[in-house]
């Protein structure tokens, strides 16, 4: 009699667990939610949108909720406050946090872009471009302390131009308003991301004459990062996230600008497909999209050089302080 009772109870437990697999650690309901904040919506971040649209995050059992948190300061505030779990932002922001002596440092774990993403546009471009043409001009740059501006100044100095003495540098305009300021007539030269550069070329407002990405070299320009405490408590989740990123990076590397554009169009619904293709093509041709999530030491040192020259670095920060490549290395091994 007792055996029959125990068998009945065991069978009931099996049925209950089968009916609630999500609660027992299985089934579609067990996806882990990860809140991601991107510093801006940009074609520059194509691998992220590919990972979302192609289902690479879902394959890893993750439910990624993406939000745009405009500006590096707002993105970092959201991360530090716990409003988001992971940030896609310039790696310089993690250095700024470290320099302030944070007890819970922000750790770079997955590189997305490996060059600057801006281009130099000339309002009245001649047949041939020479950097000396910028001397005495009005240059519409980017926000002080941000990677676009630091990479821009690094490039100007590399080409023999003192940005604070040889030209009129405007850098007090919010990132979101730079393109409209140029369109309204401000500046003879402007530093722009895609797709705005391609849009202005199509509209006849100017011509792209140089790439700051090419000129400033490889560096961990945009990286997925999170707090050390989040990694400590969610190591498996960070690994799955990095696995999905690597799948997306490999997909982007193997596919055409047209295919990539079609994959990311849901995130740029108001954009012209030809402009998106043109933007992806430019970034792909100059190697802006990282093909794996690893932040290597040479890139990191170049970043420090750029920040040091801009006067934004208190001390050189060794990569092992705020870079963790272990997740990227495991993702590559598992492929």
From TrEMBL:
Signal peptide limits: 1-22
Alphabetical keyword list: Signal
Compartments, as annotated in UniProt: Periplasm
Domain of life: Bacteria
Keyword Phosphoprotein: no
A Pfam family that the UniProt record links to this protein: NMT1_2
Family assignment from sequence similarity: Belongs to the bacterial solute-binding protein SsuA/TauA family.
Gene3D superfamilies: Periplasmic binding protein-like II
Protein name, entry field: SsuA/THI5-like domain-containing protein
Organism of provenance: Paenibacillus ihbetae
């Amino acid at each position: 009699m007792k055996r029959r009772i125990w068998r009945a109870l065991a069978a009931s437990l099996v049925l209950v667990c089968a009916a609630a697999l999500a609660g027992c650690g299985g089934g579609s309901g067990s996806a882990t939610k990860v809140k991601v904040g991107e510093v801006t919506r940009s074609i520059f971040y194509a691998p992220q949108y590919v990972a979302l649209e192609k289902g690479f995050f879902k394959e890893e059992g993750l439910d990624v909720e993406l939000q745009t948190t405009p500006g590096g300061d707002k993105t970092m505030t959201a991360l530090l406050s716990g409003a988001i779990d992971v940030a896609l932002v310039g790696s310089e922001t993690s250095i700024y946090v470290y320099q302030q002596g944070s007890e819970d440092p922000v750790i770079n774990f997955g590189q997305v872009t490996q060059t600057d993403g801006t281009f130099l546009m000339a309002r009245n471009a001649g047949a041939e471009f020479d950097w000396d043409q910028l001397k005495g001009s009005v240059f519409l740059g980017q926000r002080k302390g941000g990677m676009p501006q630091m990479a821009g100044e690094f490039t100007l100095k590399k080409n023999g131009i003192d940005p604070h003495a040889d030209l009129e540098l405007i850098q007090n305009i919010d990132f979101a308003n730079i393109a409209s300021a140029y369109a309204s007539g401000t500046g003879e030269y402007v530093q722009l991301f895609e797709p705005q550069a391609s849009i202005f070329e199509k509209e006849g407002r100017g011509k792209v004459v140089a790439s700051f990405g090419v000129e400033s070299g490889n560096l961990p320009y945009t990286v997925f990062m999170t707090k050390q405490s989040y990694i400590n408590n969610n190591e498996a989740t960070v690994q799955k996230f990095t696995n999905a990123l690597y799948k997306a990076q490999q997909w982007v590397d193997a596919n055409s600008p047209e295919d990539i554009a079609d994959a990311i169009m849901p995130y740029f619904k108001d954009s012209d497909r030809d402009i998106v293709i043109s933007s992806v093509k430019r970034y792909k041709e100059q190697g802006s999209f990282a093909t794996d999530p690893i932040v290597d030491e040479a890139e990191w040192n170049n970043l420090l050089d750029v920040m040091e020259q801009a006067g934004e670095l208190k001390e050189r920060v060794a990569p092992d302080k705020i870079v963790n490549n272990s997740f990227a290395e495991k993702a590559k091994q598992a492929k």
